[in-house]
Amino acid sequence: MKILVSLLLSLCLSVTSWAGESAVPKLDMGKGGQCVKDTQWMRKNHMHMLKHQRDETVRKGIRGENSLKNCIECHASLKDDSVIAREDSFCVGCHRYEAVKIDCFECHSGKRKSAWLQQRNAK
Ligand code: HEC
Ligand code: HEC
Ligand code: HEC
Fold this sequence. Notes:
123 residues; mainly alpha; binds heme C
């Protein structure tokens, strides 16, 4: 079991990136509202935040507002409820532009699945 967990963790971290340009393409921001931190900070630090959050959850069972699910809840498109489906989808749109390769969504869902969604679809 320990081995399985550390295997998963190392998979979580096996992410490659290259230096990209600094301008950002037009992204589908999703639902809007207020990010968990300010935009400039998020642009620079979201990856550390996610890795830290993953460690907190996997090792200590703590689930907080910085969970991946929470990011997706806001940032998934209002058109297809996804952060990864299209060229301008929030996470993938920027990563593709910056030539950052992440494989989080092989395991994690990139789709919104909240109660909010059920309410909206019931209308
Ligand atoms: C091989 C499968 C796998 C991959 C790839 C993967 N994860 Fe995970 N991740 C897990 C599992 C399993 C858990 C623990 C499940 C739980 O407790 O919700 C987890 C938990 C997390 C959590 C804490 C729970 C949450 O929903 O916030 C975060 C954050 C997270 N992963 C981020 C990432 C990020 C970012 C990437 C890409 C760099 C990534 N993961 C890639 C399997 C994976
Ligand atoms: C309550 C909704 C909400 C949540 C939750 C949220 N965000 Fe945001 N986020 C926003 C909004 C709205 C903006 C754009 C703010 C602006 O334009 O000034 C933003 C901005 C960002 C940016 C900068 C985008 C850019 O153009 O540079 C990144 C990166 C980001 N968020 C990642 C995340 C991650 C990762 C999570 C989860 C840990 C998360 N956000 C959680 C609403 C949210
Ligand atoms: C405005 C652009 C932008 C947006 C939007 C964005 N990212 Fe990123 N992301 C980057 C850049 C640039 C890097 C690489 C930073 C580096 O190389 O140091 C990165 C790196 C990452 C990494 C770590 C990669 C590594 O090599 O360690 C993870 C995990 C990640 N992003 C997850 C997300 C998730 C999940 C979302 C959507 C909720 C998101 N990002 C949205 C620009 C963005």
